[in-house]
């Protein structure tokens, strides 16, 4: 049925274009694109399906909106020129980082070709202490050796540099999760997915890597439950913002 793929892609494109009009309203607000809608789009399949998840206009997800609010309310992170590494760049956040980092913005991904560097985060091709900031969201769960990646992030960050290293949290304690159904076939060049499930000990994992780590929850940014619902950051898939600083 591969011959139907172009048709499926075209239909999805048209559906995405029509979504902002179909969901006209003011019940929810996307802080990323500053637009209002009757509701957010659903996302995911099977056990991961959820309502009220994706912005009809800019496609920001729950975790993107939470991170956006965190960045907007921590403007001191951008009070001087930055050399910032953005791993697996999300379009809207990439625009935000480019505006603030300018020529210091570096995009990177393992597979994508529309980035500055194609790289493995567990072996970064940068010299020691050359980066001011790193943003890497929902990537480490797919990295075979996440501790090596954390060591590389620490190595390349300057003393006093910061990083946001978000991951999905699905367990009480972190556990490896390599199974036949999440390991790619030998001929498939894409990386394996969800090789571990992170738990609430993730903060300790960051500290063991040599960082000063902190966690920001949706309620820390918006105390009003009604406002969290309107911004679409009240669901279980929203997660937290995990920020770290390399001690200097």
From TrEMBL:
Keyword ATP-binding in the entry? The reply is no
Q: Where is this region: Disordered?
A: 214-248
Methyltransferase type domain boundaries: 115-164
Source organism: Chromatocurvus halotolerans
Record GO biological process: methylation
| Name this protein carries in UniProt | Methyltransferase family protein
Q: Note the Pfam families from the entry.
A: Methyltransf_11
SUPFAM superfamilies per record: S-adenosyl-L-methionine-dependent methyltransferases (SSF53335)
């Amino acid at each position: 049925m591969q011959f139907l793929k172009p048709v499926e892609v075209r239909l999805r494109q048209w559906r995405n274009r029509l979504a902002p009009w179909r969901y006209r309203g003011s019940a929810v607000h996307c802080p990323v694109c500053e637009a209002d809608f009757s509701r957010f789009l659903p996302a995911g399949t099977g056990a991961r399906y959820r309502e009220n998840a994706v912005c009809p206009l800019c496609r920001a997800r729950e975790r993107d909106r939470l991170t956006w609010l965190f960045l907007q309310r921590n403007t001191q992170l951008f009070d001087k020129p930055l050399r910032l590494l953005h791993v697996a760049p999300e379009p809207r956040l990439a625009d935000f980082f480019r505006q603030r980092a300018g020529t210091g913005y570096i995009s990177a991904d393992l597979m994508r070709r529309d980035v500055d560097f194609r790289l493995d985060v567990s072996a970064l091709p940068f010299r020691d202490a050359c980066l001011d900031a790193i943003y890497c969201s929902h990537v480490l769960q797919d990295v075979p050796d996440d501790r090596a990646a954390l060591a590389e992030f620490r190595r390349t960050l300057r003393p006093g540099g910061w990083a946001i290293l978000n991951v999905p949290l699905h367990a009480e304690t972190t556990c490896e999760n390599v199974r036949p159904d999440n390991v790619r076939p030998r001929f498939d060049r894409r990386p394996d997915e969800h090789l571990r499930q992170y738990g609430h000990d993730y903060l300790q994992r960051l500290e063991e890597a040599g960082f000063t780590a902190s966690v920001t929850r949706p309620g820390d940014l918006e105390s009003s439950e009604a406002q969290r619902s309107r911004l679409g950051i009240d669901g279980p898939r929203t997660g937290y913002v995990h920020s770290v600083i390399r001690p200097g």
